[in-house]
Request: fold
Amino acid sequence: MSVLQEMSPNVKQMRQLEYAVLARQAIRIREELKQGVRKPYKEVIDVCWGDPHRAGIKPLSFVRQVLAACLYPQLVNSDKLPVDVRQRAQRLLQECCGGSVGAYTNTRGIPEIVHRVSEFITRRDGGAPSPPENIYISPGSQWALTNMLKILVNSKASTRTGVLTPVPCHSTTTLSLEGLGAVIVPYYLSERQGWELQVEELQQALDSAKGVCNPMALYVINPGNPSGHVQSRKSMQEVIRFVSEKRLFLLADEVYQECVYGENSEFVSYKRVLAEMGPPLSDTVELASFHSASKGYMGECGLRGGYVELVNLDPAVMKYIYTIFSMDTCAPVLGQMALDLMMNPPQPGDPSYPLYDVEKQPIRTALVHNVKTARAVLNSLPGFCCQPVEEVGMKPDTFYCSRLLEEAGVLVSPGCEYGQKEGTFHIRFCIMTPQDIMEELLKRLTSFHTQFMEDFS
Amino acid sequence: MSVLQEMSPNVKQMRQLEYAVLARQAIRIREELKQGVRKPYKEVIDVCWGDPHRAGIKPLSFVRQVLAACLYPQLVNSDKLPVDVRQRAQRLLQECCGGSVGAYTNTRGIPEIVHRVSEFITRRDGGAPSPPENIYISPGSQWALTNMLKILVNSKASTRTGVLTPVPCHSTTTLSLEGLGAVIVPYYLSERQGWELQVEELQQALDSAKGVCNPMALYVINPGNPSGHVQSRKSMQEVIRFVSEKRLFLLADEVYQECVYGENSEFVSYKRVLAEMGPPLSDTVELASFHSASKGYMGECGLRGGYVELVNLDPAVMKYIYTIFSMDTCAPVLGQMALDLMMNPPQPGDPSYPLYDVEKQPIRTALVHNVKTARAVLNSLPGFCCQPVEEVGMKPDTFYCSRLLEEAGVLVSPGCEYGQKEGTFHIRFCIMTPQDIMEELLKRLTSFHTQFMEDFS
Reply:
């Protein structure tokens, strides 16, 4: 048959993920450990993904109690669950078609939840209005982003569509862009300035696109993934002026908004900065802002709930967006509910509040601690080895990660997965893990790195 | 800004769904009922979607108990849940990364669940092997189908990719095809022969594609949606010979496989028929078979779990498929688990079996009953009114559905959503609803139809 020959060239140009190699290696090592093979470690520490539960963070009881009661409504009558949990579950079930989390919802999500998302945004953004009809709940923010790219990327145009994309950038977005036939126009974040976004870099990227593609959108990730950088309000205003002047659609990936640990940094949404800049910018700049239940304290990646808020889009375009989102019917109902609970956690005075607070605080403490100790330990290590290791068919950073996994049982991801300046190599790991696991990780990494430098530099 | 002008023509050519009009109307009517507006009915019967819970079917306790315990593991120790439920939950949790349903899974799904899907298929298909690496779990079967179409549809080719598609066909697939820029090559199911698929129709469709597009795949739905027709083994063999001869990829939507009610019909999978035909066909015909946790007795649409099994694909193509599925990370974990529970329900002797059986039997009885009574009542009604009603800007079948909703509070979907032969009009509704609701529905439909015929014929 002819699938391979005739297959979409967009698909053919998609990279194979470097991570897949490491994932297979981790599966093998875990299998060996299970069979009793002796290794210098007893289990693999997996901090490769932005996946808090995988990295050892415990789910919040409040969230799980409400969702369990929605799944199995007999629990609504159980006196073992706090009364606010039972009330919350009861209300959510009334909002489901047929009173069941097993029914499809509207394309944009359960209307009452969409409404509460809109209220959350308005609160967060100091009162800037957020009409519910501009919100689409989706199975994760990445999924909503891909849908927006389907609208923006014109695969039939003679000049391909360009999207300005940060380097480094997590690989799911770059894969989506490749799969849709877009041209990735890279702009480099400044490593020396803590991975800051600089508007001159955007201009340079735009210049580089001349004659190559038709740049339609700017994709920003704030707080940065994988960089962790938090943009200042001033920097965001510059970006907004830039996209307005260059007539670019602004795609703002803001899923790490709850994860701001630095002492002098604060998350402000693009929606808010745009609203506060006033007309004409606030009435014209087209913006899509993404958020998710996968990150933050809740960290419910596996439930698959996210949303996109759309600002200043032409009503005719909004109709197409509705159709695009209709194609997959709806987001998982429990993911929609998780999003709702993230935005409306228990308040002081609620029966569930004390436990919620007791569970949330150590997560916050661990994160602040992990950021500090990880930075201190990593900065104390001598520079990476940059020897070409082409004989093993791996990029140097993948090679480093593969050895780290094999010898120390630590699974992190290589910088090449995210893009990096030529000649520089990085590793990336998730700091959303309990303190003791982070300490064990840093111990293993330090001793591995010392040996690695002896062997390869 | 220029999004609308520059937008992908694939997206621009997508139809707006007729259903959206009816959905908005239903929302208004429900709001009016809530506010006490007097109508000849107290609630809207919504049988428009293939959504059993929305239509009044109750979820199976076994499924909900296991999933609730996975969400809130304290329940694993609760003596209020049957011991097999607790054991099942414990095992499933051990199979999750970090022991949490909140963690991402592998791209293809939780490995142990993928393995059990493969065992289910092998059992179902009389022993035909089903390697786990050919299975991808997804957030619903439709999502997996769209991913397969991304591989098959070449949006860059000078001659567009064609996909042979049944008429009638549910609209999500036709929307996906349009969105990807494919040409829908319609083949008509024979209404007179109970919506049978006839190979001559396939040949005629292929002839019609000459000079228009490059036909790459045949999409079949068995059991039919919306038609309900169950293909015979002989008919499937003819289809397999046809796709082999014409070098077409076979996409088999088999999500209604549990829903076979006719006395002389039996579901057989395309995978099984292909395997039993032996080489060279069984080694060469490329097949993707889709299944879902949304239909059947379980009917868990809102959890979003489905899978695709791939047969005879080139290993190079399989690599691209892995990348495409990686883009959205993974299916919702509870949807994956629902799929597992559907394929491995409690067995006689298990503590949960008696309740499971007590809950399942009435669903089966209702379905068999609903099919019979719906057919009898509908056949007793005089023919549809086919007056053009262009003055209200609606197609005749949408007009009929809209009046039925307004006057009788019954929400069904118009045939134009699925495609139909010119000059014929249909309505479609889901029969997965309790007996009493079906009876109420038929009563309302009968009296509405009688009045409608008086008014419009």
